[in-house]
Amino acid sequence: MPDSSMLERLRGQLVVSCQANPDSPLRDPSIISRLALAAELGGAAGLRLQGFEDVRAVRAVTDLPIIGLTKTDREDTEVYITPTAAEAVRLAELGAEIVALDATLRPRPEPLADMFAAVHAVGALVMADISTLEEARAALDLGADIVSTTLSGYTPYSRQLSGPDWALMDELREAGLPFVAEGRLNTPADAARALKRGAQFVVVGSAITRPDVVTRWFVQALQD
Ligand SMILES: CC(=O)N[C@H](C=O)[C@@H](O)[C@H](O)[C@H](O)COP(=O)(O)O
């Protein structure tokens, strides 16, 4: 049985996403592990990690809850966050208590319901990454444990914003749907505001663990 007390443990807390793209100099499981430990030292209550190797490496050094995902480029679909049940199950087997997966309404290689069932069958929870209210409703109706605003701005039909999607958070709260705030929460004030907006917890990545991205913000500001 999936342990939903894990979500209670994260309530009101910060989850730090520790990810590095293939072209990043930080792209090494041992470096991701160090980033995760630094996040833990700073008070993170959980970690969001990409890829089997990173999940395995970080599981070996911390007991913090892990939200695991894969990013897989496929020819047949635009869905790239954990597109298949096999990947989802592998993440759970490697120690992710929560598996994040794309739950947008775009064409996908495998039905969402089958993926949710596969994750639950191995005792993990489903975090459904969505981009709209409609997708959140559909995912929760199918049995997702929580939805996350991760993909707002990353589907062509969702709001395209340079900052967090506050309107989506308002819609989710007003609909009474349990949600996590994630995506472009670039300051401590944004993260705190997301909790006030009704988020169960917040996930922050770039502003904490992507120094190349943060450097670019500064460089850009100097040119403006
Ligand atoms: C859209 C997508 O692929 N998001 C990914 C999901 O895991 C990560 O690249 C983001 O860093 C994460 O969502 C946290 O967001 P931000 O880095 O903006 O704080």
Residue share in β-strands: 15-25%
**Structural shape:** globular
Under the CATH scheme, which class? Alpha Beta
User: Would you count the extended β strands for me?
Assistant: 8
User: Which secondary-structure class do the elements indicate?
Assistant: alpha/beta
Helix content: 40-55%
Number of individual domains: 1
Write the layout of secondary structure elements.
Layout: H1 5-10, E1 14-18, H2 29-41, E2 46-50, H3 52-59, E3 66-69, H4 85-93, E4 98-102, H5 112-121, E5 125-129, H6 133-141, E6 146-148, H7 166-174, E7 179-182, H8 188-196, E8 202-204, H9 206-209, H10 211-223
Parallel strand pairs: 1-2, 1-8, 2-3, 3-4, 4-5, 5-6, 6-7, 7-8
Helix pairs in contact: 2-3, 4-5
Bound molecules: N-acetylmannosamine-6-phosphate.
What does this protein look like?
The protein has ten helices and eight strands. Strands 1-2-3-4-5-6-7-8 form an eight-stranded parallel beta barrel, surrounded by seven helices. The chain is of the alpha/beta class and 224 residues long. The longest helix is centred in the first third of the chain and has 13 residues, at 29-41. Strand 6, helix 7 (166-174) and strand 7 form a beta-alpha-beta unit. The model has no long low-confidence stretch (mean pLDDT 97). 43% of the residues are buried. It has a single domain (5-223), classed as TIM Barrel, CATH 3.20.20.70. N-acetylmannosamine-6-phosphate binds at residues 17, 19, 48, 69, 150-151, 154, 182-185, 203-206. Pfam families: NanE. Belongs to the NanE family. Pathway: Amino-sugar metabolism; N-acetylneuraminate degradation; D-fructose 6-phosphate from N-acetylneuraminate: step 3/5.
